[in-house]
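Subgroup meeting minutes
Present: P.N., E.W., G.H.
Scribe: E.W.

1. P.N. recapped why we're keeping a running log of single-chain structure predictions: easier to compare across weeks, and new members can see raw inputs and outputs side by side.
2. G.H. added today's entry (416 aa).
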Amino acid sequence: MILLAALVATASVRGVVRDTECLPLPGVTVVLRGDARQRTAVTGAAGEFAFEDVPDAPYTLRAWMQGFQALSRDGVRPAANGEPVSLMLPLGFGTVVDRVVMASSSGNTPESVPGLSVRVLDDRCQPVAHAAVALTDGPRVSTMTTDDTGRASLPLLDGGRYSLIVTAPRFSQSALSADTTPRGQTEILMPLFRGPPESRIVFEPVPSRFSLMDPVTQPRIRIVAIGDSTTAGTPAFKSPREAPPAGEGNVTSQYAYWLMQAHPDWEVVNQGVNGERSDTIAARFDEDVIALKAAVVVIVAGVNDVYQGRDAQHVEEQLATMYRKARAAGLHVVAGTIIPYNTATPDQNARMHEINAWIRTQADAGVVTFVDTRAAVAAPGNADMLASSPDGLHPDAAGYRRMADAIAPAIERAVR
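Output recorded in log:
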């Protein structure tokens, strides 16, 4: 019998991300989701991104960048001819309060009330007339239709959670929400995208410690953390790599969380996966680290190799490969040591110490910046036991915080 493998037709999802002045946005993180695999890209200098060899299926595109609304667009399908998708990110929902002149309840004397000024554009930066704009603020719903310039004004109360929904024939529905009274700009810019009206575009705030009016003058430093369970945050947390898009569980059970708490100007991407060996981590290094165009990569790997009986040389070879790839891509490498687990045998502990000593030699040679993550979580006076652990195998949240406290100075040295 001859078995023929089924061929799955593939195409690409390509596109450009712009702001609502139609200027390209470099450095935007774009994620494509819809099949078993999550794909991530970062836009180039012209705002462009591409996902190649994508099976034909409906996908959701999510795009975000500090200081702008995060966009989520569903119903995107790959195209064999690579026809580009246009994405547009408005500035953060930090907009208005002008006074809107409305007719009084008697219908005679106009009255001035707080209101939102909204301008609706299509994905070619052209105004959309006759679009329906609905504003919800608490229990109230106000509706208005845009004029020929794409503008509409709606009454607004001070306080509460706000949402805008914009619809128009031949366009996908756009929705935007905010938790606080919008302030700052003169009007909200709401983009519409050509597509089936039943599909949706959703905009959500991206938290920022910087002014939404000046989102590019103080960029965040992107750091990728890659490794096994002790990077992911096991047992209390599943990383965004394991449970996309935002992870699942107790967010404090990961050193990435504590790094960002202490350094709001850092974006730490948690690419840890529970149970992985150093060779499986190295196999996804290009996709999970290099493609993200970070400034620094933190690598902690090897404990599962030791647990499964592999020798120290095997781990050292895999780590050396990752160090070499990172340096070739212009990334600074922060290399952490393998942390202990309480059931390790004397032989397993000996191999972990051998690998950790080798990592230190790489730092001495100037290849990496060294951090002793093992010492950070070890019990006082016993480098082979965890100071605190919910399962005897992994740190608790306090242990992950101690890892972050040790890693942060190493990142600072690497950046300098």
